[in-house]
Amino acid sequence: MLPGVYFACKKSGEPYYRASITFLGKHISLGSYSTELKAHKAYKLARGLLNNPSKWGIDNYPSSCLLSFHKWVVLNNVRDNKIYIKNPIYIKKSYFLYYIDRNNILKFDVEDLFYYAGHKILRRGGHLFTSEYGMQINLMSRYGIKNYAIAERDFRFVNGDDTDFRYSNIEIINRYNGVTKCLRKGLHIYQAKIHINGDYIIGRYESEEEAAIAYNKAADIIKDKGLKKVYRLNYIEGIDEIAYASIYQRIRISKKIKDLIV
Predict the structure, then answer these.
(1) To which H or E segment does residue 250 belong?
(2) Which pTM was predicted?
(3) Structure confidence by residue, pLDDT tens digits, 209-231
């Protein structure tokens, strides 16, 4: 076999050739190829990339390259940062880049490196996911952004870049179901709204927590009236059971909801 090439067979008995290279004591798979020569050329290209950083960077990925772009990023990172990561990650000084492909690059804080080193990011229908225990987890949910959240209303990317998932760049505007922050007579208030057969305003409140509890109370009232609709209730952080019960008891709810016939 030519250097860097290993012979293998598929379950059907069809032969193929695997290419790999060892760098810094790490055995790095380069992919599978139909011929021994192609596998060897992939090995030679990987060796040239690892030995010549001035010539081969992520941005000058060759056209019709025998190495996948995923592998290209991995090799650039292990060469420049001396850390082998199987996912297409390139580490910068205080953050890292995750390459979905050549044109879609995500940015994360370095504290998330361990997670994304072991969890591949998938894209489906414009949404980004990771896989955990066989389940697809929406990437946005890792940063407190709910599945139904609307950009610029419920959250925003501070610098306007929706590929920048560094914590300092994500601002959660509305944390709770049915709650929206509003400006009224020059003051910020929180409006609670619930959907029944159309949207009903529950009320307007001075704090986000009061609005979230008002939403829960409205959902309970509607349930007690016999409407078989499931509402996701808000969990209020930092409030114990006694304080929650006190606010729940005194919070005012729109008369339209109290008098609603379902």
Answers:
(1) helix 241-250
(2) 0.80
(3) 999 999 999 999 999 988 888 88
